[in-house]
Amino acid sequence: AQSVTQLDSQVPVFEEAPVELRCNYSSSVSVYLFWYVQYPNQGLQLLLKYLSGSTLVESINGFEAEFNKSQTSFHLRKPSVHISDTAEYFCAVSQRTGANNLFFGTGTRLTVIP
Amino acid sequence: ETGVTQSPTHLIKTRGQQVTLRCSSQSGHNTVSWYQQALGQGPQFIFQYYREEENGRGNFPPRFSGLQFPNYSSELNVNALELDDSALYLCASSQLQGREAFFGQGTRLTVV
After folding, report:
1. Are B105 and B6 contacting, i.e. CB atoms less than 8 angstroms apart?
2. A chain contacts of residue B94, beta-carbon cutoff 8 Å
3. Which residues 6+ apart lie within 8 Å of A52 measured at CB?
4. Nearest to A99 among B42, B48, B92 (CB)
5. Short-list B94, B56, B51, CA closest to B70
6. Contact A106 B42 (CB under 8 A)
7. Per-residue pLDDT of chain A (114 residues; tens, 9 = 90+)
8. Which of B53, B77, B93, B110 has the fewest CB atoms within 10 Å, i.e. is most exposed?
């Protein structure tokens, strides 16, 4: 079984400041890792994913996440946030073999303060 | 290429009623998964359909059922609605062995 823990339910941060959203997972099998973003009254959009290769993955809008196998973490970071980054962020895992359904954390609400 | 579309966007039902939610998958995708997202929570996997057969199920009772059609679109049916069924229901399409799921905008169900 898989589970995902997002340690912070809410993260307020000033515009242009750096931010880190934490994600830890537990799994008895190897997993793929994902970050999804959800804007108000919308569905989920894939932000970035780790499937294999380099443990540091980047998105087109400046976010990055690093897979740390020993710490079973996949923290999301951005060096300088914008107002438009205000949203709910979900960390998720799926197992590498078999069913490809996603297990989500409870989410972190990022609020960027002007 | 069209994305994942869900209908309706909102609806209100009375406890005990039945509801059907619909999802059109993204072009080229053969797998549809349904998730329930309660307020303030992360999405929870309900079930997945591949080639019109259920291909995995989460911890949801049998009154949650589904269908997938030959064009890969899908329905989620919920019988005997309960107040706790109030949630955002998300549909996601993918390839069966694909590792990227594309989500629709969701259907907001309110049970009163």
Report:
1. yes
2. 100
3. none
4. B48
5. B51
6. yes
7. 789 999 999 999 999 999 999 999 999 888 899 999 999 888 899 999 998 888 899 998 899 999 999 999 999 999 999 999 999 999 999 988 777 889 999 999 999 999
8. B53
